[in-house]
C-alpha cells in the first residue's frame, strides 16, 4: 500500500472516518469534485442498463443486445456472469477457480428476480460449473430459497447440469505450490475481528523481512519449476500462493420497463476451509434486488460484507432517499465502524459495491482505490455504450492482501521475470 497510516492522518481522513464522515463525497467541495470525476455514474438515467464487476466487461455486448430486444432482466445478468464461469483462465469463478485448502473447487451464487420477487441461492457446490444458473433453478423448481453442499450438487444434476472437474491443470499446480509452501499461515485464525489479533508486521522475526521474503520467493520459484508451471506464469502463481485471492462477479440489469434483477457468483476465497461460504450466496449481503427500489451487489471481503448485510443495506438506503453513491458509502462506513476505524486492520479489508437504482442511476464505490497501483477498482457499464469506470473510493491508497504483500527487492523481481 503506497499510502501510509501517517500520510493518512496528515490528510485528516482518519479523523473524518472516526467522526463517521470519512468519504470524499462529503462536504461541498468534495461533492463537487466527486460529481465531476464520476459524472457518468451520478448523471446517467438511461434504461436499459447493465452494471457489473469489471471481469464481466467482455460479456456486456451480447447481454445488452439481449436485454434491449426484450430479454428478461435476470437472464441478461446471467449471460454476463456465465462468461467468467465458463472461462478456465478466470480463476475467480466457475471452471478453473482457485480451490479450497483440500484442492477442491467450491462455488457459491445467488440471484434475485425483481419482476416476480423470487430468489435462489446455492453454497459450497462442487463439480458444477454454472452455479449462477443453478441458483435460478432453485426458485424455478423448488419451494426453497437456498441449497448447499452435496444437496445442491444433487439438485443441479437432477436439473440436467453436468458434473465436471472444475480444477484445471493450472489451478491444480497453483494449489500444490500453495500446499508445499504453506505451514501456519492459513485460515484457521485468528481473524481480524479477534481482539488478540496482531498485525503481521509487528511480530518479531529472527531475520530481517527482506531476507525472509527473498527466501520465500526463491523457494516458491524452485517449487513452481519442479511442478511444471510455465516460466511466464510463475510470478502470477507465486502471488496467488502468498496472497490468497478473492474472486467474484456481480451483475444487475434493468430494462426499459423498469424491471430489475441481480446475481452474484464466485469461487470464493482461495484455499479457504472446506464448506466456507462468503457473502456471494447470502441474499442481502452479496446480492439484493427490490423491484420497487433497485439492486446492489458486492465483491471483496465477504465476511465483512455479511456482517453489515451490505447489498440489503444499500437498497434500503436508496428506499429512504439516498442516492446510489450515498447508499454505498454508508454501507462502507459500517464496515469501518466495525473496526473502530483501526487502520491497522482496515488496510487488510476491501469492498466494492455495484449499485443500480430503478430509474437507471448507478454507482460503484469501494473502500480503497484499488488492490495496488495499476489495478484500480472498476465497474463495467452498458447503457448503449459499453465502458469501464473507476469506483469512488472512501480511502485514498490501496488495500493490502492478508498476509500483507512483501516489499520484494527490485533485483529479485528482475530475476523472476
Can you give the helix content as a percent range? Answer: 25-40%
- The order of strands across the largest sheet is 4-3-2-6-5-1-13-14
β content, as a range? 15-25%
* Low-pLDDT segments: 1-40, 403-409
Mean pLDDT comes to 83
Mind summarizing the main beta sheet?
A: 8 strands, mixed
Rg on CA atoms, Å: 21 Å
Structural class from helices and strands?
A: alpha+beta
- Kindly report how far apart the N and C termini lie: 22 Å
User: What is the number of helices?
Assistant: 16
| Inertia-based shape | globular
Question: What's the total count of β strands?
Answer: 15
Overview of this structure, please?
This protein is an alpha+beta fold and 417 residues long. 37% of the residues lie in helices and 18% in strands. The chain has helices spanning 5-10, 13-18, 28-37, 39-43, 60-68, 73-86, 131-141, 149-158, 169-181, 209-227, 234-242, 302-308, 310-319, 324-338, 343-346, 410-416; strands at residues 49-53, 107-113, 118-125, 146-148, 248-254, 260-266, 287-290, 294-300, 351-357, 362-366, 370-372, 375-376, 378-382, 386-390, 392-393. A hairpin with a 3-residue loop joins strand 7 (287-290) and strand 8. Helix 5 packs antiparallel against helix 6 (73-86). The longest helix is centred in the middle third of the chain and has 19 residues, at 209-227.
List the helices and strands and how they pair.
Layout: H1 5-10, H2 13-18, H3 28-37, H4 39-43, E1 49-53, H5 60-68, H6 73-86, E2 107-113, E3 118-125, H7 131-141, E4 146-148, H8 149-158, H9 169-181, H10 209-227, H11 234-242, E5 248-254, E6 260-266, E7 287-290, E8 294-300, H12 302-308, H13 310-319, H14 324-338, H15 343-346, E9 351-357, E10 362-366, E11 370-372, E12 375-376, E13 378-382, E14 386-390, E15 392-393, H16 410-416
Helix pairs in contact: 5-6, 9-10, 9-11, 10-11, 13-14
